[in-house]
Design a protein that fits this description.
- It is a single chain.
- By secondary structure, this protein is mainly β.
- The chain contains no helices and 11 strands.
- The protein has strands at residues 2-6, 9-12, 17-24, 31-37, 44-50, 55-57, 65-70, 75-80, 89-95, 112-113, 117-122.
- Strands 2, 4, 5, 6, 9, 10 and 11 form a 7-stranded mixed β-sheet that branches. Strands 1-3-8-7 form a 4-stranded antiparallel β-sheet, with no helix packed on it.
- The chain is globular, with a radius of gyration of 13 Å.
- The termini are far apart.
Length: 123
Protein backbone atom coordinates (compact mmCIF):
# COMPACT_ATOMS: atom_id res chain seq x y z
CA UNK A 1 0.00 0.00 0.00
CA UNK A 2 1.32 3.44 -0.93
CA UNK A 3 0.08 6.41 1.07
CA UNK A 4 0.05 10.01 -0.10
CA UNK A 5 -0.60 12.77 2.42
CA UNK A 6 -1.69 16.20 1.28
CA UNK A 7 -3.39 19.36 2.49
CA UNK A 8 -0.71 20.96 4.60
CA UNK A 9 0.11 24.62 4.46
CA UNK A 10 0.72 27.86 6.33
CA UNK A 11 -2.15 29.09 8.49
CA UNK A 12 -2.68 31.43 11.41
CA UNK A 13 -3.47 30.40 14.94
CA UNK A 14 -7.15 29.61 15.28
CA UNK A 15 -7.54 28.57 11.65
CA UNK A 16 -8.56 25.15 10.34
CA UNK A 17 -7.03 22.73 7.85
CA UNK A 18 -8.03 19.36 6.50
CA UNK A 19 -5.40 16.82 5.63
CA UNK A 20 -6.02 13.90 3.29
CA UNK A 21 -4.27 10.57 2.96
CA UNK A 22 -4.94 8.68 -0.25
CA UNK A 23 -4.06 5.01 -0.57
CA UNK A 24 -2.97 3.42 -3.82
CA UNK A 25 -1.77 -0.02 -4.79
CA UNK A 26 -4.20 -1.36 -2.22
CA UNK A 27 -6.95 -0.24 0.09
CA UNK A 28 -6.97 1.51 3.44
CA UNK A 29 -6.12 -1.09 6.05
CA UNK A 30 -8.20 -1.86 9.13
CA UNK A 31 -6.26 0.62 11.26
CA UNK A 32 -5.10 3.96 9.92
CA UNK A 33 -3.43 6.78 11.80
CA UNK A 34 -1.88 10.21 11.72
CA UNK A 35 1.39 11.06 13.40
CA UNK A 36 3.33 14.30 13.45
CA UNK A 37 6.92 15.30 13.98
CA UNK A 38 8.11 18.75 14.90
CA UNK A 39 11.74 19.79 14.36
CA UNK A 40 14.00 18.26 16.97
CA UNK A 41 11.20 16.20 18.48
CA UNK A 42 10.14 12.57 18.34
CA UNK A 43 7.27 11.42 16.16
CA UNK A 44 4.02 11.94 18.06
CA UNK A 45 0.77 10.02 17.80
CA UNK A 46 -2.10 12.27 16.69
CA UNK A 47 -5.10 10.05 15.97
CA UNK A 48 -6.12 6.65 14.70
CA UNK A 49 -9.25 5.11 13.25
CA UNK A 50 -10.39 1.56 12.70
CA UNK A 51 -12.48 0.23 9.83
CA UNK A 52 -15.49 0.31 12.14
CA UNK A 53 -14.72 4.02 12.78
CA UNK A 54 -13.55 3.60 16.33
CA UNK A 55 -11.20 6.49 17.04
CA UNK A 56 -8.39 7.33 19.44
CA UNK A 57 -6.79 10.75 19.83
CA UNK A 58 -3.60 12.06 21.33
CA UNK A 59 -4.15 14.24 24.39
CA UNK A 60 -2.77 17.35 22.73
CA UNK A 61 -5.33 17.32 19.91
CA UNK A 62 -8.39 15.86 21.62
CA UNK A 63 -11.42 18.05 21.05
CA UNK A 64 -9.80 19.99 18.21
CA UNK A 65 -9.00 17.32 15.61
CA UNK A 66 -11.28 14.80 13.96
CA UNK A 67 -10.07 11.74 12.07
CA UNK A 68 -12.30 10.09 9.50
CA UNK A 69 -12.10 7.68 6.61
CA UNK A 70 -13.95 7.07 3.38
CA UNK A 71 -13.21 3.53 2.28
CA UNK A 72 -15.14 4.02 -0.96
CA UNK A 73 -12.63 6.76 -1.87
CA UNK A 74 -9.68 4.96 -0.30
CA UNK A 75 -8.92 8.13 1.63
CA UNK A 76 -8.45 9.10 5.25
CA UNK A 77 -8.84 12.63 6.58
CA UNK A 78 -7.74 14.74 9.51
CA UNK A 79 -9.83 17.82 10.21
CA UNK A 80 -7.80 20.20 12.35
CA UNK A 81 -9.57 23.09 14.06
CA UNK A 82 -8.41 25.79 16.45
CA UNK A 83 -4.84 25.33 15.31
CA UNK A 84 -2.04 26.47 17.60
CA UNK A 85 1.60 27.30 16.85
CA UNK A 86 2.59 24.15 18.72
CA UNK A 87 0.70 22.10 16.13
CA UNK A 88 3.40 23.03 13.62
CA UNK A 89 4.94 19.79 12.34
CA UNK A 90 5.21 17.42 9.43
CA UNK A 91 2.12 15.25 9.50
CA UNK A 92 2.40 11.64 8.37
CA UNK A 93 -0.32 9.14 7.62
CA UNK A 94 0.29 5.52 8.45
CA UNK A 95 -1.36 2.14 8.15
CA UNK A 96 -1.05 -0.99 10.24
CA UNK A 97 -0.63 -4.33 8.56
CA UNK A 98 -3.88 -5.43 6.84
CA UNK A 99 -4.37 -8.36 9.20
CA UNK A 100 -4.33 -6.16 12.31
CA UNK A 101 -7.53 -4.74 13.77
CA UNK A 102 -6.31 -3.15 17.00
CA UNK A 103 -5.52 0.54 17.26
CA UNK A 104 -2.06 1.29 18.61
CA UNK A 105 -0.40 4.59 19.49
CA UNK A 106 3.21 3.68 18.80
CA UNK A 107 4.80 4.49 15.47
CA UNK A 108 6.64 1.18 15.25
CA UNK A 109 3.28 -0.61 15.14
CA UNK A 110 2.56 0.87 11.71
CA UNK A 111 3.85 -0.78 8.56
CA UNK A 112 3.06 1.69 5.79
CA UNK A 113 3.88 5.39 5.83
CA UNK A 114 3.16 8.37 3.63
CA UNK A 115 5.76 11.00 2.83
CA UNK A 116 4.39 13.68 5.15
CA UNK A 117 2.82 17.08 4.65
CA UNK A 118 4.01 20.22 6.44
CA UNK A 119 1.63 22.20 8.60
CA UNK A 120 2.87 25.56 9.84
CA UNK A 121 0.79 27.58 12.27
CA UNK A 122 1.85 31.18 12.82
CA UNK A 123 0.97 33.12 15.96
Amino acid sequence: VQLQASGGGLVQAGDSLRLSCAASGGTLTNVMAWFRQAPGKEREFVAAISRTSSTVYGDSVKGRYTISRDDAKNTMYLQMNSLKPEDTAVYFCAARSPAVTVIHRTARSYTYWGQGTLVTVSS
